[in-house]
Write a structure and sequence with these properties.
Blueprint: E1 6-9, E2 12-15, E3 20-26, H1 41-53, E4 58-62, H2 75-91, E5 96-99, H3 103-112, E6 116-119, H4 126-135, E7 138-142, H5 160-177, E8 185-188, H6 197-205, H7 208-211, E9 218-219, H8 225-235, H9 244-256, E10 261-264, H10 267-280
Helix pairs in contact: 1-2, 2-3, 3-4, 9-10
Protein backbone atom coordinates (compact mmCIF):
# COMPACT_ATOMS: atom_id res chain seq x y z
CA UNK A 1 0.00 0.00 0.00
CA UNK A 2 1.07 3.57 -0.67
CA UNK A 3 0.09 7.07 0.31
CA UNK A 4 2.19 9.19 -2.03
CA UNK A 5 2.13 12.89 -2.76
CA UNK A 6 2.50 12.21 -6.48
CA UNK A 7 1.28 9.86 -9.18
CA UNK A 8 4.25 8.87 -11.35
CA UNK A 9 3.21 8.61 -15.00
CA UNK A 10 5.60 8.23 -17.89
CA UNK A 11 8.42 10.24 -16.39
CA UNK A 12 6.16 12.90 -14.88
CA UNK A 13 5.03 13.46 -11.32
CA UNK A 14 1.39 14.52 -11.06
CA UNK A 15 0.85 16.12 -7.63
CA UNK A 16 -2.01 14.69 -5.60
CA UNK A 17 -2.30 17.58 -3.17
CA UNK A 18 -5.32 18.79 -5.18
CA UNK A 19 -7.80 16.68 -7.17
CA UNK A 20 -6.73 15.83 -10.71
CA UNK A 21 -9.39 16.25 -13.37
CA UNK A 22 -9.24 13.81 -16.29
CA UNK A 23 -11.10 14.97 -19.39
CA UNK A 24 -13.00 12.37 -21.42
CA UNK A 25 -12.12 12.48 -25.13
CA UNK A 26 -14.00 9.77 -27.00
CA UNK A 27 -12.93 9.32 -30.62
CA UNK A 28 -15.81 6.99 -31.42
CA UNK A 29 -19.13 7.02 -33.30
CA UNK A 30 -21.07 5.23 -30.54
CA UNK A 31 -20.10 6.56 -27.11
CA UNK A 32 -23.06 7.03 -24.80
CA UNK A 33 -22.51 10.78 -24.28
CA UNK A 34 -20.60 12.41 -27.12
CA UNK A 35 -20.88 10.03 -30.06
CA UNK A 36 -19.31 11.29 -33.29
CA UNK A 37 -18.34 14.69 -31.88
CA UNK A 38 -14.60 14.03 -32.15
CA UNK A 39 -14.24 11.50 -34.95
CA UNK A 40 -12.12 13.92 -36.96
CA UNK A 41 -8.60 13.94 -35.53
CA UNK A 42 -8.32 17.71 -35.81
CA UNK A 43 -11.57 18.23 -33.92
CA UNK A 44 -10.47 15.74 -31.27
CA UNK A 45 -7.12 17.48 -30.77
CA UNK A 46 -8.85 20.86 -30.51
CA UNK A 47 -11.25 19.44 -27.92
CA UNK A 48 -8.37 17.97 -25.93
CA UNK A 49 -6.48 21.25 -25.91
CA UNK A 50 -9.64 23.04 -24.81
CA UNK A 51 -9.92 20.62 -21.89
CA UNK A 52 -6.38 21.48 -20.81
CA UNK A 53 -7.22 25.17 -21.10
CA UNK A 54 -10.20 24.53 -18.83
CA UNK A 55 -7.96 22.90 -16.24
CA UNK A 56 -7.72 19.21 -17.11
CA UNK A 57 -4.54 17.62 -15.79
CA UNK A 58 -5.03 14.59 -18.05
CA UNK A 59 -6.85 13.94 -21.31
CA UNK A 60 -8.18 10.38 -21.60
CA UNK A 61 -8.39 9.32 -25.26
CA UNK A 62 -10.57 6.34 -26.15
CA UNK A 63 -11.28 4.74 -29.51
CA UNK A 64 -13.62 1.94 -28.48
CA UNK A 65 -16.88 2.55 -26.66
CA UNK A 66 -17.25 0.75 -23.34
CA UNK A 67 -20.87 1.76 -22.78
CA UNK A 68 -23.24 -1.07 -21.88
CA UNK A 69 -23.85 -3.45 -24.80
CA UNK A 70 -21.25 -1.77 -26.99
CA UNK A 71 -19.59 -3.95 -29.63
CA UNK A 72 -15.83 -4.27 -29.75
CA UNK A 73 -13.81 -2.93 -32.67
CA UNK A 74 -10.66 -4.24 -34.30
CA UNK A 75 -7.24 -3.06 -33.21
CA UNK A 76 -6.69 -1.47 -36.62
CA UNK A 77 -9.84 0.63 -36.33
CA UNK A 78 -9.07 1.63 -32.76
CA UNK A 79 -5.50 2.55 -33.66
CA UNK A 80 -6.63 4.67 -36.58
CA UNK A 81 -8.93 6.63 -34.31
CA UNK A 82 -6.64 7.26 -31.36
CA UNK A 83 -3.00 7.31 -32.45
CA UNK A 84 -3.04 10.60 -34.41
CA UNK A 85 -4.82 12.28 -31.52
CA UNK A 86 -2.50 10.86 -28.85
CA UNK A 87 0.59 11.82 -30.82
CA UNK A 88 -0.51 15.38 -31.49
CA UNK A 89 -1.68 16.07 -27.95
CA UNK A 90 1.45 14.54 -26.42
CA UNK A 91 3.65 16.58 -28.76
CA UNK A 92 2.01 19.69 -27.30
CA UNK A 93 2.86 18.68 -23.75
CA UNK A 94 -0.52 17.25 -22.77
CA UNK A 95 -0.54 14.37 -20.28
CA UNK A 96 -2.41 11.78 -22.32
CA UNK A 97 -4.11 8.67 -21.03
CA UNK A 98 -5.07 5.91 -23.46
CA UNK A 99 -8.37 4.25 -22.59
CA UNK A 100 -7.94 0.74 -23.96
CA UNK A 101 -7.97 -2.91 -22.95
CA UNK A 102 -5.85 -4.04 -25.92
CA UNK A 103 -2.12 -4.49 -25.22
CA UNK A 104 -1.22 -3.73 -28.83
CA UNK A 105 -3.06 -0.40 -28.71
CA UNK A 106 -1.51 0.47 -25.36
CA UNK A 107 1.98 -0.21 -26.72
CA UNK A 108 1.44 1.91 -29.83
CA UNK A 109 -0.17 4.72 -27.86
CA UNK A 110 2.75 4.75 -25.42
CA UNK A 111 5.12 4.99 -28.39
CA UNK A 112 3.02 7.93 -29.59
CA UNK A 113 3.42 9.67 -26.22
CA UNK A 114 0.72 8.38 -23.87
CA UNK A 115 1.80 8.57 -20.23
CA UNK A 116 -1.06 6.56 -18.70
CA UNK A 117 -2.91 3.37 -19.63
CA UNK A 118 -6.51 3.34 -18.41
CA UNK A 119 -7.59 -0.30 -18.63
CA UNK A 120 -11.26 -1.08 -17.91
CA UNK A 121 -10.37 -4.77 -17.53
CA UNK A 122 -8.05 -4.04 -14.60
CA UNK A 123 -4.79 -5.31 -16.10
CA UNK A 124 -6.10 -8.88 -16.24
CA UNK A 125 -4.02 -9.43 -19.38
CA UNK A 126 -0.43 -10.19 -18.37
CA UNK A 127 0.85 -8.75 -21.64
CA UNK A 128 -0.78 -5.43 -20.79
CA UNK A 129 0.89 -5.39 -17.38
CA UNK A 130 4.27 -6.22 -18.94
CA UNK A 131 3.95 -3.42 -21.49
CA UNK A 132 3.08 -0.87 -18.81
CA UNK A 133 5.91 -2.05 -16.57
CA UNK A 134 8.47 -1.84 -19.34
CA UNK A 135 7.38 1.66 -20.38
CA UNK A 136 7.09 2.92 -16.79
CA UNK A 137 3.75 4.56 -17.52
CA UNK A 138 0.98 5.24 -15.07
CA UNK A 139 -1.88 2.77 -14.91
CA UNK A 140 -5.52 2.93 -13.89
CA UNK A 141 -6.71 -0.46 -12.68
CA UNK A 142 -10.50 -0.58 -12.93
CA UNK A 143 -13.07 -3.12 -11.79
CA UNK A 144 -15.65 -4.42 -14.23
CA UNK A 145 -17.91 -7.43 -13.79
CA UNK A 146 -18.20 -9.15 -17.18
CA UNK A 147 -17.51 -7.11 -20.30
CA UNK A 148 -19.35 -4.24 -22.00
CA UNK A 149 -21.61 -6.60 -23.94
CA UNK A 150 -22.78 -8.40 -20.79
CA UNK A 151 -21.90 -6.29 -17.77
CA UNK A 152 -25.39 -4.87 -17.19
CA UNK A 153 -27.16 -8.22 -17.50
CA UNK A 154 -28.18 -8.62 -13.85
CA UNK A 155 -24.86 -7.82 -12.12
CA UNK A 156 -24.75 -9.69 -8.82
CA UNK A 157 -22.58 -9.41 -5.70
CA UNK A 158 -22.72 -10.66 -2.16
CA UNK A 159 -21.05 -7.46 -0.91
CA UNK A 160 -20.22 -5.13 -3.80
CA UNK A 161 -17.87 -2.88 -1.84
CA UNK A 162 -15.85 -5.74 -0.37
CA UNK A 163 -15.69 -7.70 -3.63
CA UNK A 164 -14.63 -4.71 -5.74
CA UNK A 165 -12.10 -3.61 -3.10
CA UNK A 166 -10.60 -7.09 -2.89
CA UNK A 167 -10.33 -7.38 -6.68
CA UNK A 168 -8.54 -4.05 -6.92
CA UNK A 169 -6.19 -4.95 -4.09
CA UNK A 170 -5.27 -8.24 -5.77
CA UNK A 171 -4.75 -6.63 -9.16
CA UNK A 172 -2.51 -3.96 -7.68
CA UNK A 173 -0.31 -6.61 -6.09
CA UNK A 174 -0.15 -8.48 -9.40
CA UNK A 175 0.78 -5.25 -11.18
CA UNK A 176 3.60 -4.67 -8.71
CA UNK A 177 4.77 -8.26 -9.17
CA UNK A 178 4.81 -7.59 -12.94
CA UNK A 179 7.19 -4.68 -12.38
CA UNK A 180 4.82 -1.70 -12.36
CA UNK A 181 5.96 0.90 -9.84
CA UNK A 182 3.71 1.21 -6.83
CA UNK A 183 3.68 5.00 -7.25
CA UNK A 184 2.39 4.60 -10.83
CA UNK A 185 -0.83 2.81 -9.85
CA UNK A 186 -4.29 4.34 -9.48
CA UNK A 187 -7.50 2.40 -8.90
CA UNK A 188 -11.06 2.86 -10.15
CA UNK A 189 -14.04 1.00 -8.62
CA UNK A 190 -15.77 1.14 -12.00
CA UNK A 191 -19.04 2.97 -11.44
CA UNK A 192 -21.51 1.72 -14.06
CA UNK A 193 -19.35 -1.20 -15.17
CA UNK A 194 -21.23 -4.32 -14.15
CA UNK A 195 -23.08 -2.58 -11.32
CA UNK A 196 -26.74 -1.94 -10.66
CA UNK A 197 -28.15 1.37 -9.46
CA UNK A 198 -27.86 0.21 -5.85
CA UNK A 199 -24.31 -1.08 -6.38
CA UNK A 200 -23.21 2.30 -7.73
CA UNK A 201 -24.69 4.12 -4.75
CA UNK A 202 -23.11 1.66 -2.32
CA UNK A 203 -19.68 2.31 -3.82
CA UNK A 204 -20.12 6.08 -3.76
CA UNK A 205 -21.22 5.92 -0.13
CA UNK A 206 -18.20 3.79 0.80
CA UNK A 207 -15.34 5.32 -1.17
CA UNK A 208 -13.21 5.30 1.96
CA UNK A 209 -12.98 1.52 1.59
CA UNK A 210 -10.99 2.15 -1.60
CA UNK A 211 -8.96 5.17 -0.50
CA UNK A 212 -7.81 3.13 2.52
CA UNK A 213 -5.99 0.79 0.14
CA UNK A 214 -3.47 3.61 -0.21
CA UNK A 215 -3.53 4.13 -3.98
CA UNK A 216 -4.96 7.22 -5.69
CA UNK A 217 -8.64 6.57 -6.39
CA UNK A 218 -10.21 7.63 -9.68
CA UNK A 219 -13.98 8.08 -9.82
CA UNK A 220 -15.81 8.21 -13.14
CA UNK A 221 -19.50 9.02 -12.74
CA UNK A 222 -19.82 11.58 -15.50
CA UNK A 223 -23.28 11.63 -17.12
CA UNK A 224 -23.87 7.95 -16.38
CA UNK A 225 -27.20 6.18 -16.39
CA UNK A 226 -27.59 5.89 -12.63
CA UNK A 227 -27.67 9.69 -12.48
CA UNK A 228 -30.52 9.63 -14.97
CA UNK A 229 -32.36 7.26 -12.65
CA UNK A 230 -31.90 9.70 -9.76
CA UNK A 231 -33.20 12.60 -11.85
CA UNK A 232 -36.08 10.77 -13.54
CA UNK A 233 -38.73 11.42 -10.85
CA UNK A 234 -38.25 15.19 -11.24
CA UNK A 235 -36.94 15.58 -14.80
CA UNK A 236 -38.30 12.57 -16.64
CA UNK A 237 -35.98 11.12 -19.25
CA UNK A 238 -32.63 12.91 -19.47
CA UNK A 239 -29.95 12.75 -22.12
CA UNK A 240 -26.39 12.25 -20.86
CA UNK A 241 -25.57 15.90 -21.57
CA UNK A 242 -28.43 16.93 -19.24
CA UNK A 243 -26.70 15.30 -16.26
CA UNK A 244 -23.81 17.68 -15.63
CA UNK A 245 -25.30 19.12 -12.44
CA UNK A 246 -25.87 15.60 -11.11
CA UNK A 247 -22.32 14.74 -12.13
CA UNK A 248 -21.10 17.76 -10.19
CA UNK A 249 -22.76 16.43 -7.04
CA UNK A 250 -20.93 13.13 -7.41
CA UNK A 251 -17.62 14.86 -8.10
CA UNK A 252 -17.99 16.83 -4.88
CA UNK A 253 -18.94 13.68 -3.00
CA UNK A 254 -15.97 11.79 -4.41
CA UNK A 255 -13.48 14.51 -3.49
CA UNK A 256 -14.90 14.91 0.00
CA UNK A 257 -14.53 11.14 0.48
CA UNK A 258 -10.92 11.09 -0.64
CA UNK A 259 -10.85 10.55 -4.40
CA UNK A 260 -7.69 11.90 -6.05
CA UNK A 261 -8.84 11.87 -9.69
CA UNK A 262 -12.23 12.57 -11.26
CA UNK A 263 -13.02 11.71 -14.87
CA UNK A 264 -15.52 14.08 -16.50
CA UNK A 265 -16.88 15.25 -19.82
CA UNK A 266 -17.43 18.87 -18.75
CA UNK A 267 -13.93 19.78 -17.59
CA UNK A 268 -14.52 23.40 -16.60
CA UNK A 269 -17.39 22.42 -14.33
CA UNK A 270 -15.46 19.45 -12.98
CA UNK A 271 -12.47 21.59 -12.06
CA UNK A 272 -14.61 24.20 -10.31
CA UNK A 273 -16.50 21.60 -8.31
CA UNK A 274 -13.44 19.51 -7.43
CA UNK A 275 -11.43 22.48 -6.22
CA UNK A 276 -14.34 23.88 -4.21
CA UNK A 277 -14.98 20.50 -2.60
CA UNK A 278 -11.29 20.15 -1.78
CA UNK A 279 -11.39 23.48 0.04
CA UNK A 280 -14.09 22.03 2.31
CA UNK A 281 -11.85 19.17 3.45
CA UNK A 282 -10.31 19.80 6.90
CA UNK A 283 -6.57 20.36 6.82
CA UNK A 284 -4.47 17.59 8.32
CA UNK A 285 -2.60 18.58 11.47
Amino acid sequence: MLDSAVWKVGGRDLPLSSPLVMGVLNVTPDSFSDASLHLDAGAAVAAGLAMVEDGAAIVDVGGESTRPYASSVSADIEAGRVLPVVEELASRGVVVSIDTSKPAIAARAIDAGAAIVNDVTGLRDREMAAICASAKVGVVIMHMQGDPTTMQDNPTYGDVVAEVRDFLSRQCLRAIDAGIGIESIAIDPGIGFGKSFDHNLAIMRSLEAFTHLGYPVLVGTSRKGFLGSILEPIRGHTEPSDRDAATAATVATAVLRGASIVRVHNVALGVDVAMTAKAMVPLRS
